[in-house]
Amino acid sequence: MSLTLTEQDRLTLQTAAWGAVSLMSAAGAAGSAHRAATEGSVALTSATGRIGHVLAKAPKGVKYGKTVADLADQVLPALTAAMTLLKQQDPAEAGDFRRTVLIAVEATTRGEAGPAMREMARKITEALDVASATSGGGSGGVPTDAAAQDRPELQKVIQEIVDSGFTGVSLRVHDKRGEWAGSAGVAELSQNTEPPVDGHVRIGSNTKTFTATVVLQLVAEGRIALDSSVDDYLPEFGLDRRITVRMLLQHTSGIFNFTGDFDPDGTFVPGIPATPAGKEWVDNRFRTYRPEELVRLALSKPARFEPGTDWSYANTNYVLARLLIEKVTGRPVAEEMHRLILGPLGLTGTFQPVGETDIPEPHAHAYYRYEEDGQIRTVDVTRHNPSWISSGGDMISTTRDLHTFISALLGGKLLPAELLAEMCAPEAKAGYGLGVFVQEAPGGGTVITHNGGMAGHAALLYSTP
User: Fold this and answer.
1) Alpha helices per DSSP H over 286-395
2) Which residues does 346 contact at the CB level (< 8 Å), separation at least 6?
3) pLDDT of 200
4) Active site residue 205
């Protein structure tokens, strides 16, 4: 579709775009107006698309209002008019204009936006959206509540991840600007469909955060004591009596990791044959492992260190936590997970498999690559039996459910304040709390996080308290 702009149309676009930058700089804190205007101007002069050459020029002869209110009365309607004009002629260019303006607005803040600037950014976004009820730009079919804010900088990041060699990425962000979700790449090799924004994914070791939460909820119910010996609950394994429930959740027990670990001398000792390590795992990916089998394998190997004297990440700790949950409740871990977390929070996209090999639709496919006879082979491993990892990382969820879960957890809806504080208190070596990593954020503050890889699928979870 051709784009036909009169001189008045060009003036409307320029007035709207450059006016948005002027609004942000006028609303900025004292001393930052010039810097904000400079940053925003750079973004506008680098605008792309067929309207790029229009936006690269400031409007001639336009006199903006002297006060912020006067300026807003002049610019906000111009933003809506500009979007309406472009949407009628070429929706793609309307989307490009919207993204360019929001990039310029974002550039004016550079991490130091005060309340006035944030409010002005909200009004500018609203003015852009009056003429465009839905957002473009790689939203991947995301519902309008999450797509209401176009975040080109986030879309750019996930596209760069895909460009580095990933098949596909989905991202959901909820921050002071609202909620955004998007995706990039493909859901399946040889297909052009983007990964579903809220598709199901095997979340790997993020399962540990869910499992630790259940254990702490049972502590709150008085059914487990955090500093009691695990041997009191699971005497059948003959565990070192110095190992406590807390040590399981914090990875300070010293127990060997059944997926492979180092012995006290630093020599790597392989774990279960099914650990993803080439063709052997691919050929055995539908085998069923019992949790007790995984624990006994780990206990047949030397301990890494004396209980409580060091830190070492071990999936075995969380398989024992699973067996602990089942022993004190008399119910499968999946049932307790539903009773204490999934049901109360309405997490309909999250569940814990008990040997099921399928993953619900919609989902992106998972691929595993290995070398055989000097050749690289890629296999679709979307379907496999996750019992090889058990509660060390077998759960399935969605970005929306993960957001709901971590928000509820850190918002105090799942644990009493004193237990939440225990969960988020990191040990010294790796900064691991009870089922979460606790990290210092750039620029100050704390981030609560976990990550998980699961043979072709992976998930990263971050939140501030």
Assistant:
1) 291-299, 315-329, 333-337, 343-345
2) 404
3) 93
4) yes
